[in-house]
Amino acid sequence: MKVNNALKVTVVCSQLLLAASVFAAESKSADVFYYNLTDSFIANLDKILTQEGSEQGINLKKYNAADDAYAQSETLDIALADKKDTPLLINLVDSSYAGEFLASLPKDTTRQIIFFNRNVSDAALASYDNAWFVGTSPRESGRYQAEILVSYLKAHPDYDKNKNGVLDLVMLKGEQTHLDAVLRTQEVLKVLNEQGIKYKVVFSANANWQFQKGFDFMDQAVSSLTFNNIEAVVCNNDAMAMGAITDLNQYGYNLEDANKYIPVLGIDAIPEARKAVEEGRMLGTVCNDATKLSEVLVTMVKIDTKDSEEISKAIGLPVLDKRISIPYHKICNAQ
Ligand code: GAL
Question: How sure is the predictor about 332, in pLDDT bands with cuts at 50, 70 and 90?
Fold first, then answer.
């Protein structure tokens, strides 16, 4: 009898422990603040991140600022009033708000704050010891994009359709002050120079990452320049590239007729762009790795440590000055 009681106590205790650990695993959660869920890359990231969270037992609560910086700061204030110290994953509408936001944290908090996708300053990161940034090195994507273009041009020495001695280039860029847009553009042009490709930017516009703006600007470029004077279209992301391709397609370009083709490049490797590359409507894209980004964010929440080395070991990437850079990969369709 005594033995049985002891056994019972042990069983009950271990069940309690089990319940506690299941509860702990189930109760691990994080709040995610997106700058804008109509952004194609962010919407795709959201799908992947949600999946990753559920696989790793992290409950993610999402907020969409719909590109409204003020609304986002209000939502963040509400989150701070929550005493649970839930980790916050923040994709800022206005990157310059990071410092002010961190300064508004209660003095006794140790809450984990991870900014992602939209870069924040070193000063902001240094101002709070549990603040991190997970992003990319934008120049790397510009370089890969340019390399895809250069190998196409080398394989097609007749690319200079109007025989003016230069590559006539349309550039569709992201938001004017967004580092991804600025550095990707600079790097593409730098690589073209390094590779001895003479070019002229014949049309350039900030299409702010958007499909519709990509479509509209491409249409403007086509009507002002005509097809013969456009020899490549380089876009800072896929959504704008897909807009440009959709515009070209309505004129029979980048479909079946090999004589009606303009190389178009994007960045992100969203599913629509991967398909367009496979179908030969788009020359290439560069993978902005939403899967690895999601894995890193969820792992960081899960291990919840301020030890850079521990984070680095868990995610398999270096952590330098509280920054983690997710590598890009090249995806292309040799034509
Ligand atoms: C970039 C991405 C763009 C856009 C932007 C938003 O990294 O390539 O498509 O999503 O982030 O900040």
Answer: low
Q: What is the pLDDT of residues 33-85, one digit of tens each?
A: 999 999 999 999 999 999 999 999 999 999 999 999 999 999 999 999 887 89
Give CA separation, 97 vs 32, 70, 118, in Å: 16, 10, 11
> In angstroms, what is the span from residue 217 Cα to ligand 1's centroid?
19
What pLDDT does 84 receive? Answer: 81
The verdict on the CB of residue 237 being under 6 Å from ligand 1 is yes
Residues 6 or more apart whose Cβ sits within 8 Å of residue 201? 169, 170, 171, 189
Ligand 1 site, residue 118, Cβ cutoff 6 A: yes
**Closest C-alpha residue for ligand 1 atom 10:** 41
Mutate to test the pocket of ligand 1, among 268, 270, 287 (most ligand atoms within 8 A of CB): 268
Report the separation in Å between the CA atom of 41 and the middle of ligand 1, taken as the mean of its atom positions: 6
How many Å lie between the centroid of ligand 1 and the Cα of residue 117? Answer: 7
Residues 33 and 178: their CA atoms lie apart, in Å, by: 18
Q: What is the mean pLDDT of the chain?
A: 92
